[in-house]
Amino acid sequence: MTTELERELKQLIIDTLELEDVTPEDIDPDEPLFVEGLGLDSIDALELGLALQKTYGIQLQADSDDTRRHFANLRTLATLVEERRVK
Amino acid sequence: MTPASLFVQDWRAWLPDGDAAGDTHISTEARPAGRSVPAMLRRRLSNPGRAVCDMLADLDPEGTTILLHASRHGDGERTLEMLYSLAENAPLSPARFGLSVHNAVLGVHSIASGNRRSLQAISASGDEWAALLDEACGYLAEGAPRVIAVFSDAPVPARFAAHAPPDRGSAAVAAVLSPAEGREIVPAPASGEALSALDALQPVDIIDWLRHGGSLTSPLRGRTWRLDA
Known about the structure:
CATH topology of chain B: Peroxisomal Thiolase, Chain A, domain 1
Largest interface: A-B, 14 and 10 residues
Radius of gyration of chain B: 17 Å
Oligomer: heterodimer
Strand content of chain A: under 5%
Low-confidence stretches of chain B: none
CATH class of chain A: Mainly Alpha
CATH architecture of chain B: 3-Layer(aba) Sandwich
CATH superfamily of chain A: ACP-like
Low-confidence stretches of chain A: none
Structural class of chain B: alpha/beta
Shape of chain B: globular
Number of helices of chain B: 7
Shape of chain A: globular
CATH architecture of chain A: Orthogonal Bundle
Largest sheet of chain A: none
Helix content of chain B: 25-40%
Number of helices of chain A: 4
Number of domains of chain A: 1
Mean pLDDT of chain B: 93
Largest sheet of chain B: 9 strands, mixed
Distance between the termini of chain B: 23 Å
Radius of gyration of chain A: 12 Å
Distance between the termini of chain A: 25 Å
CATH class of chain B: Alpha Beta
Order of helices and strands of chain B: EEHHEHHHEHEEEHEE
């Protein structure tokens, strides 16, 4: 079951990270986003952090363990946005 | 000057706004496929970057050749536009920043191809072709069996166009240069008043010269290269 916010985040990830061959259906909400699963890299992590800041006003610390946890998969990312969004 | 002999063994070109007239050396795809680079790496390359990677994969499938890549402006869309983000105190895109450096295209290609030889990025204020040949002579004189010289450029963003050379479209060319095999490049000094009327060489000029032979003249330091058709 994919929520509206998860759908929105999938599109944000595809657009921001220029994933030219990926569709929203390709992103499994429970699969890892980084290295395995979708296969994003460290530059993507920084880029995604910037997109979350621009879109939802969420400030993240690049080197914190919390950020690592939030970026684990799409569901944890959606939880982060729900809890911390200011716009 | 360049005392050593240089020969063109093979070449490829990307000419999206031109007419290849059936020439199999030339691709005219508006958006190069970039098949030589895995999708997750390819997504960050601009069109000239995709073209360069594919030409290199074609000319050097083993990934064992020394590569030189010249571009006068590099990826202007990324570098110059980032200056506006800075001026507006907007955060910089990490991906754009990472790919804005002049050796980004060869860097991506080296990851995709596993090429661990010397990879060199050059910008020479309009004398890119001369710089490429000089560098190539150096590597060949040191014993390299061949080098690949690449020259690519795309028009700079519109708001910088008044300060840039005439817009002749995007293009890229890659030539395999050897010390003895192929068509010889015969260099000569060029002088005279006519030189000052010439524009700096762009990749489209090199492509035209490789196709049809004849003389190619760079006005900046007065150099001409002749190539038999």
